[in-house]
């Protein structure tokens, strides 16, 4: 009975923050969330890329149709986004592998440092992808 009373009191004393604009995630959490999102984007992009590849390999007219599709600014923007997501997912995966094999320390400071480095490398790769697409 006493434990039940303590649980009810503990729940009442807990602070509640409903203003989501005041919550600040650490860079490690942001890197983790971005890695998951980039994985989903990459998974969905496989279907788009395979469809475009199949169209381009079907015939000469199919190749010309695929080339015409790629001339659109909107499609180029989507391809740039796909390449950026793929780059971040690959860089984040390498970061996780380096941590798993023990090359990177498993401290919060090392995690922050490697997350910042992964994001910086992705920015550079994203710019290079933009140059490639446009």
Automatic annotation (TrEMBL):
BP GO annotations: tricarboxylic acid cycle
Subunit and partners: Part of an enzyme complex containing four subunits: a flavoprotein, an iron-sulfur protein, plus two membrane-anchoring proteins, SdhC and SdhD. The complex can form homotrimers.
GO-annotated molecular function: electron transfer activity; metal ion binding
Source taxonomy: Bacteria, Pseudomonadati, Pseudomonadota, Gammaproteobacteria, Enterobacterales
Similarity-based family: Belongs to the cytochrome b560 family.
Family matches, as Pfam families: Sdh_cyt
Protein name as annotated: Succinate dehydrogenase cytochrome b556 subunit
Organism: Pseudescherichia vulneris NBRC 102420
Entry keyword set: Cell inner membrane, Cell membrane, Electron transport, Heme, Iron, Membrane, Metal-binding, Transmembrane, Transmembrane helix, Transport, Tricarboxylic acid cycle
């Amino acid at each position: 009975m006493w434990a039940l009373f303590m649980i009810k009191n503990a729940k009442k004393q807990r602070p509640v923050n409903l203003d989501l604009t005041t919550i600040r995630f650490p860079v490690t959490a942001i890197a983790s969330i971005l890695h998951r999102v980039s994985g989903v984007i990459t998974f969905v992009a496989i279907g788009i890329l395979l469809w475009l590849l199949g169209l381009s390999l079907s015939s000469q007219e199919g190749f010309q149709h695929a080339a015409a599709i790629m001339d659109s600014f909107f499609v180029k923007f989507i391809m740039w986004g796909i390449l950026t997501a793929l780059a971040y997912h690959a860089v984040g995966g390498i970061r996780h592998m380096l941590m798993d094999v023990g090359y990177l320390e498993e401290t919060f400071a090392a995690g922050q440092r490697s997350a910042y480095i992964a994001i910086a490398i992705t920015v550079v790769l994203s710019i290079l992808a933009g140059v490639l697409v446009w």
